[in-house]
Amino acid sequence: MSDAPAAEGGRPFEEQRQIYDLLSQETRHLILQFILGHPEHLPSLDELAYMMPKNKAAIRDQLEVLSDNDIIDCYRYPPNEDARDLPSQFYGLTEHGVEILYEYKYLRGLPVARALNDNTRLSEKAQRHRDAPRPKLPDTISDALSIDEDDGTDFDRLERYIRERKGTTHSVADQVRVAKAFYNAGIGPDQEGIKRTELLDALDVDIEYQPRTVLNHLVDAGVIAQTAPSGPDAFAISERLDDIVNGQVTEEAEANLDALIAHIDDELQVTALSEDAAERDGPQARASAPSVAVADGAGRTIRSILATEFGIEPEQVIDYLRSDDPVERLNTAVEAIESSEEVTKSEDYGQIVFVRPAYRYRLTEQAINLV
Q: 28, 210, 216, 356: most buried, per Cβ within 10 A?
């Protein structure tokens, strides 16, 4: 029996030959197949003995060989130790074992191994063992052994391509999941694609990292294409109308400025008279005057706020608003008004906001050809 460890000395292909010998010995090969086919990828010794034409001693010996070479490990579940006829030791792959089986194409047989296991009639004892509680495999192992239930598509080449280019990034597992989800959803080169904000809901995919991070890596790797939708490069939206005003931007900006200027002209501020007037006999006289005549202590007005914003005299505000680019003047004025806690903006005017259409994402032809 060839149980030699990995080759030392770097002789060409020696390590590959020894790994092949390790995996291909009959009993060890069957053990690995039944681990792959098990619903939880954690069979007990009795389950393996039921599925294989080998006695427990022979199976146990080969489990030790696989364990010594870090292909499998014994996963224990202490709560079962005091339960009658329930196993507490289960055998599953290590992370190194998953890498080896991936490299040697064993994982391609996952759907077949699962189908064979699911369609095998079990004894009462074997069924109790299969149904027994057991520990949870590490996420990296369980994810690698998951089966794409949709159509059994072989994603090995696509995953290998992503890992070769993005294996040093922390989100590489998420990148693989997202690429598979795009394929299963049929979002390929002939489709319009989906927005980044639609990613999680549209694909029903659970990822650890932000969609922006994952998609940027996939775009950089050539797996996902980022495209701009057809139509204008940007949409001009009037806050006043809450509608798109492409083609009427200047007219809409001027209409908003007219409403803003009307608000300034209508704004009246109670103005305190001068100190000399306040010293006269009788009740202090008070007067209402346009906001341009604000005195100290009377509070700030829209006119005074805009005068400060533009660095001009209050009397120059209206002429200044009507000069130069109406969109720039309008947006600067509205932003200054909204930033102030001393005045309230009217609903009759608002900014003109320019919004670029969201990029859409879809698989590239190269990614499709890798599947």
A: 28
Question: One-letter amino acid identity for 290?
Answer: P
Whether 147 and 110 have beta carbons less than 8 Å apart is answered as yes
Residue 192 pLDDT: 83
Q: In which domain, by residue range, is 315 found? A: 235-355
CA–CA distances in Å: residue 30 to residues 116, 157, 231, 240, 359: 12, 25, 59, 72, 49
Mean pLDDT, the chain cut into blocks of 10 residues (371 residues total): 47 78 92 93 93 91 96 95 88 94 86 80 86 92 74 77 92 93 89 87 87 94 87 83 91 95 75 41 42 46 94 95 94 93 92 85 93 85
Fill in the DSSP letter of residue 292.
G
The CATH number assigned to the domain holding 208 equals 1.10.10.10
pLDDT at 180: 93
d(CA 357, CA 226): 12
**CA–CA gap between residue 336 and residue 302 (Å, rounded):** 9
Domain boundary residue, one of 147, 175, 197: 147
**Helix 326-339 crosses helix 249-266 at what angle (to 10 degrees)?**
40
Q: Domain count for the chain, please give it.
A: 3
pTM beyond 0.90: the answer is no
What residues have CB less than 8 Å from 160, skipping those under 6 apart? none
Q: How far is Cα 352 from Cα 240, in angstroms, rounded to an integer?
A: 8
Residues 221 and 370 in one domain: yes
Q: Are residues 22 and 72 in the same domain?
A: yes
Q: What is the pLDDT of residue 190?
A: 85
For residues 184 and 24, give the distance between their C-alpha atoms in angstroms, rounded to a whole number.
Answer: 33
Taking a C-beta distance cutoff of 8 angstroms, is the pair 156, 180 a contact?
no
> Which element (helix H / strand E) includes 195?
strand 194-195
What whole-number distance in Å separates Cα of residue 227 and Cα of residue 194?
A: 10
Does 343 lie in the same domain as 216? no
pLDDT at 218: 95
**210 and 175 in one domain?**
yes
* 205 plus 247 within the same structural domain: no
Q: Are residues 297 and 160 in the same domain?
A: no
